[in-house]
């Protein structure tokens, strides 16, 4: 892997990845089976990076390390698969590692929208909020919390706390 730049262009040279792009497989399949979706979602979560290609054994391959950097707070780098970019990247508001979770959600959203349950849905109408919600909460005043269930404090106070290796999974959050 190699990258360089001049005043006009960025040049990136990567190892050849013969498996193709995951996005292309999803587009061609229409939708993944639950098993396939779970497999690739698990690999995405464990990698927490934008994914672009698969190797010849079918496992995800992380690429585009030419833009890689250690992130301490926020960055303004515009990079990633355009279909999966988080709004804060596109709007140049600065972003952190949370945009990787957005990308994972977009992969899942692309897949689930093709499920037979959603056949006939006009996704433009959904985005434009033209559909009538089946449940409209009754709001009496700003700050009304009557639509939320009450949860006793004992429920969360008695739950098990994470320890050791479990905590390490979340040390960068």
From TrEMBL:
Q: Which GO terms describe its cellular component?
A: cAMP-dependent protein kinase complex; cytosol
**Signal peptide coordinates:** none
Q: Where is the Protein kinase domain?
A: 1-173
Q: Name one Pfam family in it.
A: Pkinase
One Gene Ontology molecular-function label = cAMP-dependent protein kinase activity
Please provide the record's keywords in A-Z order.
Answer: ATP-binding, Kinase, Nucleotide-binding, Serine/threonine-protein kinase, Transferase
InterPro entries referenced in this protein's UniProt entry, alphabetically:
AGC-kinase_C, Kinase-like_dom_sf, Prot_kinase_dom
Q: Which positions fall inside the AGC-kinase C-terminal domain? A: 119-173
Question: Taxonomically, which superkingdom?
Answer: Eukaryota
Query: This chain belongs to which protein, by name?
Result: Uncharacterized protein
Please tell me the species this chain comes from.
Aromia moschata
